[in-house]
Amino acid sequence: MNLQKQQRLVIDALEDAKAQDIKVFNTTGLTSLFDRVIIASGTSNRQTRAIAGHVAEQAKKQGLEIVAYEGEDTGEWLLIDLGDIVVHCMQPAIRAYYNLEEIWGAKPVRVRLLSSGPAQAGASGGFDEDE
Fold it and tell me: So what family is this one in (predicted)?
């Protein structure tokens, strides 16, 4: 599955699980380990676990390998490593404290968020990078 389809799969899964404040960043050129960082928020330990679990489940259904799945013990910050994409599901206080957007935010990716119509992901809003 190409990167754009993987990205869409993750975003759709995040939205299905009611993740909030979804941001997508292009990390090509910043690291050779992965091409996208996707960050989303959940309001409680239970919700962040559910969000991450749903993303992992949908990825597995589509044949993607889960390279790593971390953080389920606390539920404050869960990480799903899909190889080309790393997904962070975080509670708002943890997200604000670690401020991953500052680290990876140099190249936001425009994506379509279905839950609220065209909206921002990263600093630009609206559509998948190829659209």
Answer: Belongs to the Iojap/RsfS family.
Report yes or no on 130 lying in a domain: no
Q: What is the pLDDT along the chain (131 residues), one digit of tens a residue?
A: 899 999 999 999 999 999 999 999 999 888 889 999 999 999 999 999 999 999 999 999 999 999 999 999 999 999 999 999 999 999 999 999 999 998 887 677 877 777 554 444 443 333 444 43
Closest by Cα among 17, 129, 3 to 78 = 17
Phi, psi of 57 (to 5 degrees): -60, -45
CATH number for 42: 3.30.460.10
